TrEMBL record:
PANTHER family on file: CHEY SUBFAMILY (PTHR44591:SF23), STRESS RESPONSE REGULATOR PROTEIN 1 (PTHR44591)
SUPFAM superfamilies xref list: CheY-like
Coiled coil (residue ranges): none
Ranges where the Response regulatory domain occurs: 23-136
Protein name: Response regulator
Record carries keyword Phosphoprotein: yes
Any one Pfam family match given in the protein's UniProt record, by short name: Response_reg
GO biological process: phosphorelay signal transduction system
Protein's gene: citB
Alphabetical keyword list: Phosphoprotein
Residues recorded as bearing 4-aspartylphosphate in the entry: 72
Length: 238
């Protein structure tokens, strides 16, 4: 078992690549968000490993221990809060645990579960990503001297967005029970917010409110499906 996939002493971070030598486990089911984080890790000097659900993340963690973990709150097989709590209590502990959500209210829950920091969607600021990770590191692992904060924004390829739309379409074509719809509206809400597709985000939120009232409005599901298919077919998905 490789339990030491952490910051290597012979690889030192620099002002331009402040996360050099780190491996970050990203637990996120959205391809669009994963691609954003991949680009942020690449430009920060960090390596990335990915898991799209809790089960996959736990399999990864049986084999190696990353330097940091970025964990989405809403995953297909449960809440990211459970994994945050597990990693926070584990010995040895993952050095940095960051919660991730499109719902800003989730920050309080993530920190209470044991997270060291929180990232809200949409993710686009490279400086914010770097600062969130660095602020949770011990001083010896942070680049010495002044470091200018980059204003660079990260924009993933549209293909990743269409992949997420295809995932939703496949789910809803297979089944439209309450649990599936609840997952879909949570997933779509986060992806739409990340992609700044506010029309899609409003439609997902509208259906989510109906579900909270104990209702499943089939016309709203059909409208959401229509919007998803339109984005799959569009060459300008965002």
């Amino acid at each position: 078992m490789d339990t030491q996939d952490t910051l290597q002493p012979q690889v030192r971070p620099t002002a331009s690549r402040p996360l050099l030598g780190m491996t970050i486990l990203v637990v996120e089911d959205s391809r669009f968000t994963c691609e954003t984080l991949r680009l942020m890790c690449l430009r920060s000097g960090a390596r990335i490993r990915r898991a799209d659900c809790l089960a996959s993340a736990r399999r990864h963690l049986q084999v190696y221990r990353p330097s940091a973990a970025v964990i989405d709150m809403g995953l297909p097989d449960g809440s990211g809060l459970d994994l945050i709590a597990e990693l926070s209590r584990a010995t040895p502990r993952v050095g940095v645990i960051i919660g991730l959500s499109g719902d800003d209210r989730a920050e309080t829950e993530a920190l209470a579960a044991g997270a060291d920091g929180f990232l809200g969607k949409p993710l686009d600021s490279l400086a914010q990503f770097q600062e969130t990770v660095l602020s949770a590191l011990p001083p010896a692992a942070v680049p010495a001297g002044p470091r200018s904060l980059t204003e660079e924004a990260v924009s993933p390829d549209r293909v990743a967005f269409r992949d997420d739309m295809s995932h939703v379409a496949a789910l809803l074509e297979q089944r439209q029970d309450g649990a599936t719809i609840d997952y879909v509206v949570q997933f779509l809400g986060g992806v739409a917010r990340s992609a700044r597709d506010y029309t899609l985000e409003r439609a997902a939120s509208d259906l989510a409110r109906s579900r909270c009232q104990g209702k499943t409005r089939h016309e709203k599901v059909a409208r959401l499906m229509q919007m998803v298919h339109a984005r799959i077919e569009s060459r300008a998905a965002i």
